[in-house]
Amino acid sequence: MYVLLYMYFVNMIYLIGGTAKSGKTYLAKKILEENNISYFSTDYLMIALSQIEALDISVDTEDDRSVAKKLSPYLQSMIEAMVYNRIDYLIEGVHITPSLVYTLIKKYPDKIKACFLGYTELSYQEKKADLINHQSRMENCWYKHYSDENMNQLASFLIDYSKALKNECQALDLTYIEVKDITKQVYGMIDDLI
Is the dihedral of CA 172, 177, 179, 182 positive or negative? Predict the structure, then answer.
């Protein structure tokens, strides 16, 4: 009887990773509108752990990949505790890496669903325009005071990051979604993830 009850009480951890400013938070919020799932952004963990000097996490000077590598063991432990405690959770953030997701799926194949968002097909001019157009609607618009040149560099960096992320996802057979217009794609993404 206990085994049967456990089989029907299946929890799921939903992970949304991806390039910065690819729509991870937007997708998460749309999922939360329709589903009773707890939510966590990896930004909260990053900010908390960056306050501990011994961990040497610098959110101001390190790129997302470096910070993600340092956060990975903490994220893995946190997610494993959620799986163990049978809690449905939606976790999103740039710190969720393909290697972390691959490890978790291998260990908990029926408990983890994940996708990664990026934009490899946009030109840096298109991404720059997208970043500028959505500034006022973004929860964390850390680039709003960037110069034109810095915006060009940021857009180019984010596209390169997306390309590397897409390659990693393909190598590990993980879901990568090319974001063109998240407002038009979001419900298809939800169907794929949930």
Answer: negative
**Cβ neighbours for 95, distance < 8 A, ≥ 6 positions apart:** 17, 42, 43, 45, 46, 64, 67, 68, 71, 72, 75
Q: CATH number of the domain that 151 lies in?
A: 3.40.50.300
Residue 187 DSSP class: H
Note whether residue 63 is domain-resident: yes
Tell me the helix, strand and coil percentages in the chain, rounded to 5.
55, 10, 30
Between β-strands 176-178 and 112-118, what pairing exists: parallel, antiparallel or unpaired?
parallel
> How many residues would you count in the chain?
194
Query: Cα 20 from chain centroid?
Result: 8
Query: Could you read off the pLDDT of 148-184 as tens digits, one per residue?
Result: 898 899 899 999 999 999 999 999 999 999 999 888 9
Paired tokens of 88? 């449905």
Domain that holds residue 146: 12-193
Place of tokens 């939360």: 32
